[in-house]
Amino acid sequence: MRIKIITLSFILIGTFTFVSCKDDDENEPEGLVLDETPFALNIGGFPMPAIAADNPLTIQGVKLGRMLFYEKMLSGDGEMACANCHLQEFAFTDTAKFSTGIRGNKGGRQAMTIFNMAWHDNEFFWDGRAHLLRDQSLLPIQDELEMDETLENVIAKLSASQLYKDQFIRAFGSEEITSTKMSLAMEQFMNTILSNNSKYDAFLLDSNVFNESEKRGLDLFTTDYNPFFPEKSGADCQHCHGGANFENDKYMNNGLDADGQQKDSGRIAATKNPKDMAAFKVTSLRNIAITAPYMHDGRFNTLEEVVEHYNSGIKASNSLEPALEQTREKGLFLTAQDKEDLIAFLKTLTDNDLMSNSNYSNPF
After folding, report:
1. pLDDT value of position 72
2. Same structural domain for residues 158 and 296?
3. In 3D, which of 324, 296, 300 has the Cα closest to residue 235?
4. Is the pLDDT of residue 15 over 70?
């Protein structure tokens, strides 16, 4: 059961509390003990997040999760951490089309971004094969194309470290290290990686922040498609990329390939439902300007290519999203100026604080 967790301190204080692994706790109690001090999120203008009732955010749990996120002992060769494919300076994604694993092997999909995960409640990975974020956290460790290590070996390595045994005591009350505790800690840390301080967020408080091109781009973004009056038609983006996080918690086939040309079956591998053929998780458009390449297979290198795909490049298929099928034959009627303005708006979703926030950086 998932419940909404937020304390009065979130609203009154609005601070982002974090304890660095680099710093010694000046007020460390004599002897290591469980520390369940809550971790306060600064959610900004977002709605209250849904945090699992069995894994509330604590300062020490988040600290442990951050350590594990950057810990190279989680990989088979001791050279790779989660952070190798989820780079903070690129909104916790990879600039490579396909990330490189510990033996130089390439994965089959572009690394997804990791921010605002607390607002995702529809499974994880491009195909949704992991039900909870804690489940997702362990799978790359065991993937032979990624970190290629067993959980048993990881536990043995971490158990040999006094640093980790001490931190597991602070976070969970026992020095015993288990994969479950690891997953809970990593879930906690990833739930604290927030992106809510872009130019767009400033615009919500003061409309004068946007220039005319950005305002027109926002209007195109939110205006419905109108095949009968092209001059009044918009890009109709908000139905799939709406809300505070610019996504819709769905899996969709966005017409990248026609039937018979699809090399990646997508969501159907997890659900076995034919309607999910070539459907992939609808991702957030926040920070989209710095997270190239785009799509599950990294086929597009620029935002211009992405916009043109929706404008005129959608392929017909049996499982194509109906809203996109409506636009496929005639396209979106976007002019060169329309495309320029739409991209100008998309660039306002970049949150530079996310890329520079030391609370998310390597603690070692």
Report:
1. 98
2. no
3. 324
4. no
- Pairs from 294-299 (Cβ < 8 Å, separation ≥ 24): 294/110, 295/110, 295/256, 296/109, 296/110, 296/126, 296/264, 296/266, 297/97, 297/98, 297/108, 297/109, 297/110, 297/256, 297/263, 297/264, 298/96, 298/97, 298/98, 298/110, 299/97, 299/256
What's residue 11's pLDDT?
Answer: 35
Q: Which two tokens stand for residue 314?
A: 């959608």
- Going by C-alpha positions, the residue among 165, 164, 168, 192 that lies closest to residue 180 is 168
**Mean pLDDT within 171-200:** 98
Instruction: Read off the CATH number of the domain in which 330 is found.
Output: 1.10.760.10
pLDDT in tens, 227-252: 999 999 999 999 999 999 999 999 99
Cα distances (angstroms) measured from residue 148 to each of 15, 81, 227, 298: 38, 11, 50, 23
- Residue 237: domain span: 199-348
* Same domain, residue pair 170 and 274: no
Query: What is the number of domains present in the chain?
Result: 2
Beta bridge pairs of residue 266: 279
Question: Diameter of the chain by CA atoms?
Answer: 74
How many angstroms separate the CA atoms of 74 and 81, rounded?
6
Do 316 and 192 share a structural domain? Answer: no
Q: How confident is the model at residue 18 (pLDDT cuts 50, 70, 90)?
A: very low
Please check whether residues 157 and 10 belong to one and the same domain. Answer: yes
Looking at residue 313, the DSSP 8-state letter turns out to be I
pTM: 0.90
> Which residues, 6+ apart, have CB-to-CB distance to 233 below 8 Å?
223, 224, 225, 226, 227, 332, 333
In three-state secondary structure terms, 156 is helix
Please answer whether residues 155 and 183 qualify as being in contact, where contact means their C-beta atoms are separated by less than 8 angstroms: no
User: Is the domain of 49 the same as that of 168?
Assistant: yes
Q: Give yes or no: residues 342 and 233 share one domain.
A: yes
* Whether residues 236 and 292 fall in one domain: yes
**pLDDT tens profile 218-232:** 999 999 999 999 999
- For the segment 84-88, the average pLDDT, to the nearest whole number, is 97
Q: Do 166 and 21 reside in the same domain of the chain?
A: yes
DSSP string, 81-133: -GGGTSBGGGTTB-SSSS-B-TTS-B-SSPPPP-SSGGG--S-BSTT--BSSH
